[in-house]
Q: What sequence folds into this?
């Protein structure tokens, strides 16, 4: 009876335009000025606003989103969360994010559906096994969990893998990180938006930034489609559009924007209880709570802001999937999309002050943005509130491109970017 009532209420609210439900956050009108303005209403921007209010007591904050909350990369990714990186600076950053994810549902009082199902990264040659061993050793030295798997251990965790003699990519072994997993991307954005709004943050949707206010060589606010907004400090967290905003502000970034293809299959019964990645193809997948296979791959190497992807890249990703698990060849695809990722030469993010005083940036995450949301928000909030780096964010300052102290994670993370 209770189930029937809930279904009836759901139908009724849908027909009434949700008039009986309270909004999760306030859809605010922009004020003339704020202490902090954050450009970008994705996961990093919302998390930054929340931690500014929660950790630093700064509540005169506006998050400006040109579309709707979570409508960019936060809603266009494959939801994997992990910290299996090579360099100590990267492990410190991504493992901090993973630790925050582990308590995020309690912190926000909102179920972000974080599932620590682990990740298996499969190696296909002696050279890849050597790289896998180095990554495992580095992770263990850097105090995060990692285990080197034999071929038999990989197949025990994922029995559906292609074991045939004609397999193009033979299974040699792999890397296991048990604390890794997935979360619901929309829920992460909604949870941070609700929590930030409850602390007094203004969330302003349909508000596109069209320029920067500069006085005496310093950024003092933004021009938007909804008027001029002044700010003591301005931060931008706009993922693949970092280069566009930088151009508006009068400087260039070492960033290129590419489309990252993803897709989901029709739902099937539970058959994959971990995240899976093949080093040889770059294809990776997991199974959602609804039963869909969530499938992703490498970057489409054509500079683009198109969010639809293209057939050649889809073919490449799907061919990698069928090499991994031939049994999935009978499934139908439900939908596909692309997220716009901002790739930096050393495949590591940029967190720090921009060349324009008063403007700070959080970007360059490439394929790692979603998994880093809690840490990115925490560290960026610290920077905006204090004007100084947190010890974890300091190595990712833009200054590293002048000094040459790069953090090249293109191979260590086993993602072909």
A:
């Amino acid at each position: 009876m209770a189930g029937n009532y809930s279904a009836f209420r759901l139908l009724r609210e849908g027909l009434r335009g949700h008039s009986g439900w309270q909004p999760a956050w306030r859809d605010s009108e922009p004020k003339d000025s704020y202490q902090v303005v954050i450009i970008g209403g994705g996961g990093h921007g919302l998390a930054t606003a929340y931690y500014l209010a929660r950790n630093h007591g700064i509540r005169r904050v506006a998050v400006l989103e040109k579309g709707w909350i979570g409508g960019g990369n936060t809603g266009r990714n494959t939801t994997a969360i992990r910290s299996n990186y090579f360099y100590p600076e990267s492990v410190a950053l991504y493992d901090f994010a993973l630790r925050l994810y582990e308590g995020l549902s309690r912190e926000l009082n909102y179920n972000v559906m974080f599932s620590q199902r682990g990740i298996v990264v499969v190696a296909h040659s002696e050279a890849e096994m050597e790289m896998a061993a180095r990554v495992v050793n580095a992770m263990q030295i850097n105090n995060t969990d990692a285990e080197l798997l034999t071929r038999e251990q990989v197949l025990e965790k994922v029995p559906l893998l292609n074991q045939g003699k004609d397999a193009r990519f033979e299974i040699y072994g792999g890397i296991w990180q048990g604390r890794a997993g997935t979360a619901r991307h929309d829920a992460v954005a909604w949870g941070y938006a609700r929590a930030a709004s409850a602390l007094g943050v203004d969330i302003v949707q349909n508000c596109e930034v069209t320029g920067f206010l500069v006085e005496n060589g310093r950024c003092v606010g933004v021009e938007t489609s909804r008027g001029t907004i002044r700010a003591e400090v301005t931060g931008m967290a706009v993922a693949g559009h970092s280069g566009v905003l930088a151009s508006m502000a009068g400087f260039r970034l070492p960033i290129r924007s590419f489309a990252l293809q993803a897709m989901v299959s029709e739902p099937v019964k539970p058959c994959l209880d971990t995240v899976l990645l093949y080093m040889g193809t770059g294809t990776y997948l997991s199974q959602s709570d609804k039963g869909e296979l969530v499938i992703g791959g490498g970057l489409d190497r054509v500079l683009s802001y198109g969010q639809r992807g293209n057939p050649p890249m889809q073919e490449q990703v799907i061919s990698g999937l069928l090499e991994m698990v031939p049994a999935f060849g009978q499934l139908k695809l439900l939908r596909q999309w692309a997220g716009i990722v901002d790739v930096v030469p050393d495949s590591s993010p940029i967190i720090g002050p921009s060349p324009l005083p008063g403007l700070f940036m959080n970007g360059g995450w490439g394929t790692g943005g979603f998994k880093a949301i809690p840490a990115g928000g925490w560290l960026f909030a610290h920077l905006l509130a204090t004007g100084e780096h947190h010890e974890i964010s300091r190595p990712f300052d833009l200054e590293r491109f002048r000094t040459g102290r790069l953090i090249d994670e293109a191979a260590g993370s086993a993602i072909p970017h």
Remarks:
- The CA atoms of residues 127 and 183 lie 32 Å apart.
